[in-house]
Amino acid sequence: MTELTNLTLEKARDGLKTKEFSSVELTKAHLKRMDETRDLNAFITETPELAISGAENADARLANGTAGLMEGIPVGIKDLFCTRGVKTTAASKILGDFIPPYESTVTQNLWNSGAVMLGKLNMDEFAMGSANLNSAYGSVKNPWHVKGEEKDYVPGGSSGGSAASVAAGAVMAATGTDTGGSIRQPAAFCGLVGVKPTYGLCSRWGVVAFASSLDQAGPMTKTVRDSAIMLEAMAGHDPKDATSAKVDIPSYNSLLKGDMKGLKIGIPKEYQVGGLDADIEALWQQNIAWFKENGAEIVDISLPHSKYALPSYYILAPAEASSNLSRYDGVRFGNRANDPKDLNDLYEKTRGEGFGEEVKRRIMIGTYVLSAGYYDAYFVKALKVRRLICNDFKEAYKKVDLILTPTTPTPAFAIGEEPKDPIAMYMNDVLTVTANIAGLPSMSIPAGFSSKGLPLGMQLTAPAFEETKMLDAGLFIETAAEFAAKTQERRSAS
Ligand code: GLN
After folding, report:
1. Residue 412: C-alpha distances to residues 373, 386, 409, 457 (Å)
2. C-beta separation of 298 from 292 below 8 A
């Protein structure tokens, strides 16, 4: 039998149904792998007892015929989702040992579908970052290495623990959140599928807020079909989130065929810019060829305001963050500074001690762009650009079904070799933020390797609520790239 930790979620569901193994066996195998890969620092909190009792309950439901969509599947949860009775940190010191008295809707949906939680996953503090170097709980390592090198690589961010744990086989799938690329970029860096759904498809209730108009939860998995299954389990209308969409959630997985005949794929000329890694550029061309050979039509399109997306994101996201993070004042949540002189001192000390450097930078940028003298010049301007970016997509989708681009401008970089200038670090998000700004579904699919052998991701972006079409084309790329088989080859060769 294949090692249980190498199985996909889809195959594990089959094995559980046919009683090839139990959820307790599957869960124990993953707990063991979690132990063996602890040096990755992917988990902030491990919950092995909860996992075993969850698996026992899942086995009972599998036996009595009441199994849900994810019954008995071991998963990890990004530590941004509140979990009732289990410490939730957002990877920040400021939350201290905060134990939520409630469960986020997305995680509740997963438990209702039978999934089993193995722990809470490391991430960039408050989901701000692109390399998982901004966690109060230490950085996370990418399980991928370059042959003949000693270096450790970043897993991407902010959902770096989610990506590393799935890629290492410690969990079968993980939740991520994506405000500007935090599901797709780490998925690309770790050779995984990552789906950012349409804004409003997954409830934000109980997810620690970063930038509320951009934040979306989504699945991070080994394959497209795994993501399709997990997205169905996570999504759905929630009256507790005023921005939750009232749409029916289809059984995505059963609708996927991977047939590209007649599909129109848009290639935006604005994304064909310098600074794109040569391997990634070549892979993009290779993907275009695959689509053409299989009956899709390639259409050149223009998204003229793309170049303003990153600057507007880094106004809008910090503005919303500065407001959202004002609630951490030492009074209501988490840590409180000792011996304050007065109330202002309590706020200042608590926030000064509790927030990391990047979070403080964002709060300062956000406060600045929202201040009376600069509100019109920066914040309102960025909102206007947001509208123009949405209009660009609207125009483009009159001509095409989906848009194909790379996910990231470069492959993963080594820990210690990351860009030291924060603005250079922000460039990681240049290809991903537009989908958040426009609220569109977007996914990363592992599609090949860099010349050094690190995984590379391609990105598909669809019109709102066209997840099925996007996943279907994602399945096509996955099949054409034979990524899983090539990974196996690489592993056995090294
Ligand atoms: N890297 C981006 C940022 O730091 C995106 C983060 C995210 O999607 N949560 O803002």
Report:
1. 40, 29, 10, 11
2. yes
Give the distance (Å) from ligand 1 centre to CA of residue 429: 7
- Strands 74-78 and 455-461, by their bridges, are unpaired
Ligand 1, residues 78, 121, 124, 128: which to mutate, most atoms within 8 A of Cβ?
Answer: 128
CA distance 13 to 28: 16
Strand pairing partners for 299?
A: 266
CB-CB neighbours of 272 under 10 Å: 12
Order of strands, edge to edge, in the sheet holding 43-46?
A: 43-46, 116-121, 74-78, 173-178, 216-221, 193-196, 442-449, 455-461, 402-406, 264-268, 297-301
Q: What is this structure's pTM?
A: 0.97
Tokens of 82: 């509140």
Active site residue 251: no
Q: Known catalytic residue: 158?
A: yes
pLDDT in tens, the chain (494 residues): 569 999 999 999 999 999 999 999 999 999 999 999 999 999 999 999 999 999 999 999 999 999 999 999 999 999 999 999 999 999 999 999 999 999 999 999 999 999 999 999 999 999 999 999 999 999 999 999 999 999 999 999 999 999 999 999 999 999 999 999 999 999 999 999 999 999 999 999 999 999 999 999 999 999 999 999 999 999 999 999 999 999 999 999 999 998 999 999 999 999 987 779 999 999 999 999 999 999 999 999 999 999 999 999 999 999 999 999 999 999 988 899 999 999 999 999 999 999 999 999 999 999 999 999 999 999 999 999 999 999 999 999 999 999 999 999 999 999 999 988 888 888 889 999 999 999 999 999 999 999 999 999 999 999 999 999 999 999 999 999 998 888 866 665 54
Query: Known catalytic residue: 78?
Result: yes
Ligand 1 centroid, distance to 454 Cα (angstroms): 22
Where is 462: in which H helix or E strand? none
Mutate to test the pocket of ligand 1, among 78, 122, 182, 320 (most ligand atoms within 8 A of CB): 182
484 CA distance to ligand 1 middle (Å):
27
CA-nearest residue, atom 10 of ligand 1: 128
Task: Please state, in angstroms and rounded to a whole number, the distance separating the CA atoms of residues 455 and 362.
Answer: 30
Q: How far apart are CA 312 and CA 306, in angstroms?
A: 10
CA–CA separation, 16 vs 71, rounded Å? Answer: 8
Of ligand 1's listed atoms, the one at least distance from the Cα of 159 is: 9
Q: How many CB atoms lie within 10 A of CB 494?
A: 10
- What's the token pair of residue 214? 């951009």
Ligand 1 contact, 317 CB (< 6 A)? yes
Q: If you measure from the C-alpha of residue 35 to the centroid of ligand 1, how many angstroms do you get, rounded to a whole number?
A: 29
